[in-house]
């Protein structure tokens, strides 16, 4: 045996479970969605406050304009950053679904602001920003679910590839035990 070698072999790394791999992928997706969404939030709030203070538009109308600008910004970010590896073959359908779900999100987001402004009379700049932010938060939960489920769909080949890879990585306990290298001790 060579110098410094004990004759023992290191055990091969244990593959991560399929559940852990899916969780890791979901966390990466959430982080990317959050990065684009965070930038979109800033765009939304900046445009909202700019329009509100520069024009004489009512609060909810200023908010709708800001939301539309943020929707355009977010589509570009989601398509080319968050979901760049997803199916790109049906752009027209993707854009149509994106706009449909974005309009639902717009109604959720601005519905919260409308209720706070016109039902409860909370119309100061601070209150408007708080309820605009709250509406964005509620709408974001809906948007995350709808975009990943219906708009930016995974490619079927990738899903099959991932499923095949996961089943390969998860060996039954008997096979995993048989695959462990045996350590031999030399007498002598």
UniProtKB/TrEMBL annotation:
Segments forming domain GtrA/DPMS transmembrane: 32-152
Membrane topology: Multi-pass membrane protein
GO BP terms, alphabetized: polysaccharide biosynthetic process
Subcellular location: Membrane
Keywords for the protein's UniProt record, in alphabetical order: Membrane, Transmembrane, Transmembrane helix
Keyword Zinc carried by entry: no
Family classification: Belongs to the GtrA family.
Name of protein: GtrA family protein
Gene source species: Streptomyces sp. R28
